[in-house]
Each structure stands twice: as C-alpha cells, then as structure tokens.
C-alpha cells in the first residue's frame, strides 16, 4: 500500500515535470522563431509564408494574421499576430471497447515593435491555450462522441499580459499608446 502511494506521487510529479519541460521548450522555440524578425522590414515579416508558393509547399512558417495594431507616443507601432502553436494529444484505450482522447492546441503570439522606418526594432512572444476537444470512442472507434471546447476570443489586453519582450519585459516597456485620433 505504501509502495503504491509513493509510486503514485512519483508518477504525478514526473508528469507535472514533463508538462513544464514541454511548455518551456515550446516557449524557447517560439522565442527563437520570432527572433528572426529583428532588423527586418515589417512588411517582409508579416508576409512570411503567405505567398501562394509557400502555401502550396505546405509551409507553416508564418506569424499568423495580424490581430491588432497600436501606435505609440514615441512614433513606433506594435503589431500583434496570432498563429496556431503546439498541439498535444493524450488518450486511453480499454481492450478496444472504450477509449478516450483529448486534443489541445495552443495559440502562439508574435508581437513586433516597428519603427517609423518600417523596421522591426524588438519582438515579444507568448502563448495561450486555443482549442481543445475531448472524445470518447466505443467499439474500436466506430462510435465517437466529442465535445469541442474552443477558447473564446479575448481582448487584446488579456493577450498582452501573456507575452514578454526579447529582454523578458512586458510590452508596456515599449512605450505609451498614442491618443486615439478623433475625426
């Protein structure tokens, strides 16, 4: 009995450690990928992987669509992009009769601080859980019941707290937003 308790605790700690390692690895990969943009024209960065040839080749090398832009008082602009990130799948199966699986996908944020000259001066990245689905299969997968649990679109302010700049700072370190233009 005591052995089973120790084994269970060790397994739980080990699995928690694996998810933390995976999260850190994903974060490092996102930071490495986003760092490519530094010093490049924003127009080139925003169109990366968007050409018809890149799409035909199956290239997923993209920062995703722009989800927002904020001009700053210092004359620079923050451009926000979001794209699908890492996907994980877990499952169980009982003798082919009943099984369950969970698939979840993170969304990767790539933010770019762009100068008045159109060049990327700094970047920030982060991630948030995107979509998730839970499925139960019966009789070897002939019958499937799935629940889709998509994340609701959040405000930019909620996304902004999930990213860190190249130096590990919040994007507020880039400057204050400019006053909105009133017509």
From TrEMBL:
Top-rank taxon, per record: Bacteria
Keyword list, A-Z: Signal
Residues annotated as signal peptide: 1-24
Name assigned to this protein: Lipoprotein
Organism encoding this protein: Rhizobium leguminosarum
